[in-house]
Amino acid sequence: MSKAIRLAVTMGDPSGIGPEIIAKAAYQMRAEVEAGRIEFLVLGSSKALEKACVQVGIAQNLLPVTMIDVGPVDSEIVTGTISAVGGEWAYRAVKRAAEMVQAGEADTIVTAPLSKEALHLAGHHFEGHTELLAHLTGMRDAVMMLAHGPMRVSHVTTHCALAEVPGRLTPVRLRRVFDVTLDALECLGFAKPRLAIAALNPHAGEGGILGKEDDEIIAPIIAEYVAKGHDITGPVPGDTVFIKLRAQQFDAVVAMFHDQGHIPVKLLGFNVNPDTGVWQAISGVNVTLGLPILRTSVDHGTAFDIAGTGVANADSLIDAVEYAIKLLEGRRQRDAK
After folding, report:
1. Which fold has domain 1-142+291-337?
2. Which residue among 7, 30, 160, 251 is the one 20 to 30 A from 240 at the CA level?
3. pTM for this one?
4. CA-to-CA distance for 235 and 256, rounded, in angstroms?
């Protein structure tokens, strides 16, 4: 039997839905733990997990997890509120998880959602998990990939003002994103990945009329990779490239900025009841590529408005766990060759 994959699952902001979805996901995946395939190492507040078990109606002794409390934090956690307390718990959980993976005590990190505002209130001025993990591992060129079914989208830029995007589309950054995306696709089992590159400007710049970046910056880098034998297409106009991805004409797309890549994935991953307008389920995974540690995450926020009610859906967290397993197993198989 292969060695169990040790998942360092961070609780995120314990004032949000993180504790509840961890309890649900671990319970639903208990057969995987019992079979020796995975281990759940939960980092955060033990009191928050205990409270969540009551909220979701699962006996805590039935959860197949090892709880690692990263406290104490002086003030009490208040469910459904944004506070420095929640931000501090979230930061400590991620920091400890990164240390564990780097020390060989865990294999990968799976993160429940944190609040950027709460993180900043606690004095940790990072734009999100990706930037925090880049700092903790001493890296500065992490890449965010979102995934939902056949929709896999990496991002050249993420949390920055739209006005800054053109200046960040450098050849060095483009090559980095192409490289780690191709590597991830190979780990997912694609022998020769088909990668499409989204254009920055409408209609890929229309020959320079609507912007010159696609012709002058992006296209030459694509040509480099094509010359090396990679199956890369682009720049493809942003209003059609994701339709082609959904039709599985490509295995992934590289988006130029945050909303360009996030909107199509979330539009398909968020299941909304048309009669009530309420989200019935949220599916999708956020993957951090290009770091010395592998991290996957839910593709949604802290949902403070429903925290504590027990109704939060754990599908995205289960997706994140399964994606981490698939990527790690694929990497191990590739490296063993």
Report:
1. Isopropylmalate Dehydrogenase (3.40.718)
2. 160
3. 0.91
4. 10
